[in-house]
Amino acid sequence: MSKVGDLLGINYLGTHTMRKTGAYRVYTQSNYNIGLVMHLLNHSSEAMTLAYLGLDQASTETMLDKIDFG
């Protein structure tokens, strides 16, 4: 994994990085089906999965603050 990371210019690339990236891609490409991602990751709650993806309440509020509603 570290050789691939070096080739891609990524400082750290591990199996957990790939798991998290894969989960995020499933989330976005499944039309934001958090239940599916929760099941795939074997998480016990949607809140846990959202936090794992970096989409907890604080992150959501930060993203919303950046949107110009005109």
UniProtKB/TrEMBL annotation:
GO terms for molecular function: DNA binding. Keywords: DNA recombination. The keyword Cell division does not apply. Transmembrane segments: none annotated. It comes from the Bacteria. InterPro entries: DNA_brk_join_enz, Integrase-like_cat_sf. One of its GO terms (biological process) is DNA recombination. This is Tyr recombinase domain-containing protein. The lineage of its organism: Bacteria, Bacillati, Bacillota, Bacilli, Lactobacillales.
